[in-house]
Design brief:
- It is a single chain.
- The protein is built from 7 helices and 16 strands.
- By secondary structure, the protein is α+β, with helices and mostly antiparallel strands.
- The radius of gyration is 17 Å and the shape is globular.
- α4 packs parallel to α5 (178-189).
- The longest helix has 19 residues, at 126-144.
- It has helices at 12-16, 22-27, 46-49, 126-144, 178-189, 195-200, 216-219; strands at 2-8, 31-35, 55-59, 70-74, 80-83, 96-100, 105-110, 118-119, 122-123, 149-154, 192-194, 209-210, 222-223, 226-231, 238-243, 255-259.
Length: 264
C-alpha cells in the first residue's frame, strides 16, 4: 500500500511554526506534496528539508520571492526528478514537481489561479491558467504512454456544483468559470479519475478551501479545489481517498489517497 497526502500550506515557513504542522509527523504518508510554499529552498533549514529522514524536492518561483512554490517529501527514491513543465512558456513560477517511480509518474502541482484583475471583462490570468493546464495535460499524456499518472495539488477549480457551497453565486468568478470546469471535464474524458468522488460519490459539504476573509470555515462555506487524480489504469487499485478537514494551519486542508500498490 502506498499512501499519499497533499496540502496547500499557504506559506511553508509560517505553517512550520504552528502546532498544526504536527500533522506532518503524525500521518506518515509515503509521499507528501505541499503547495504554495512561498519559499526558496535556500530559505529552508536542512532539518526541514529532510524531516524524519525524507528527501525533499522543491520547485521555487523565479519571478518573485514569497510566491507560489511546491515541494515533495518522500522516503521512496524516485527514478527521475523534473522541476516544472518542459514547456518554457509555463516555467518560472515554481508550480510543478514531477517524480518518476517504478510503477507510476507522480506530479505535485500548484496550478495557477485566475486572479481577480479584469481586462475588458475577462480575468487576466485565466488564459495563462488554461494554457498551463493544457500544457500539463499534454505532458502527462506523453508520460502516460510509459506508466500511469498520479497528480495531486491545488487545482484552483471546483468541478461540479456540489464541489462548492454557493455555486449560483460563483458562476462568473474564477475557479468556477465554464472554461475552467470544462478542463476538468476534459481530464475525466481522457480517463483521469477524481479519486475522492470515485470513493465517496457526490458528498455535500466536502470542501478543502475556505476564505479567510469571511471566516467561511466556521460555517463550512467552502470549495473543493484540492484533488488527487489518477489515470484510469490505476482505478482498480484505489483503496481510499479522503479529506482531512480537521487539520488547520492554512486556508486549505490536506487531502489523501491510498493505492494498493507495493512501495517499490
Amino acid at each position: 500500500m502506498i499512501r499519499f497526502q497533499s496540502w496547500n500550506v499557504n506559506g511553508f515557513r509560517a505553517v512550520r511554526k504552528k502546532e498544526d504542522w504536527a500533522w506532518f509527523e503524525a500521518e506518515g504518508a509515503d509521499i507528501i506534496g505541499i503547495q504554495e510554499t512561498k519559499a526558496h529552498e535556500e530559505q529552508i533549514s536542512e532539518a526541514d528539508k529532510s524531516p524524519l529522514g525524507r528527501k525533499s524536492y522543491w520547485a521555487n518561483s523565479l519571478v518573485k520571492k514569497g510566491y507560489s512554490g511546491v515541494a515533495v517529501f518522500t522516503h521512496l527514491t524516485p527514478l527521475k526528478v523534473e522541476i516544472e513543465l518542459p514547456d518554457t512558456a509555463y516555467r518560472g513560477e515554481g508550480r510543478i514537481v514531477h517524480l518518476e517511480f517504478p510503477r507510476f509518474h507522480y506530479f505535485n502541482g500548484y496550478f495557477p489561479n485566475g486572479g481577480e484583475e479584469l481586462d475588458k471583462g475577462v480575468f487576466k490570468r485565466v488564459p495563462y491558467k488554461m494554457g498551463f493546464f493544457e500544457s500539463f495535460l499534454a505532458y502527462a499524456q506523453k508520460c502516460r504512454k510509459e506508466k500511469p499518472i498520479v497528480v495531486c495539488g491545488d487545482f484552483n477549480i471546483a468541478h461540479k456544483e456540489i464541489d462548492l457551497a454557493r455555486p449560483k453565486d460563483n458562476i462568473y468568478n474564477t475557479g468556477f468559470l465554464e472554461e475552467e470546469r470544462a478542463f476538468l471535464d476534459k481530464m475525466v474524458q481522457y480517463g483521469y479519475v477524481d479519486t475522492f468522488r470515485h470513493v465517496h460519490g457526490d458528498v455535500e459539504g466536502a470542501y478543502t478551501w475556505w476564505s479567510y476573509k469571511t471566516k467561511a470555515r466556521e460555517r463550512n462555506i467552502g470549495w473543493r479545489i484540492d484533488y488527487f487524480f489518477v489515470s484510469e489504469e490505476l482505478k482498480p487499485v484505489i483503496a481510499d481517498a479522503w479529506i482531512e478537514d480537521t487539520v488547520y494551519g492554512s486556508d486549505h486542508c490536506p487531502v489523501g489517497l491510498a493505492l494498493d500498490l507495493p512501495l517499490e
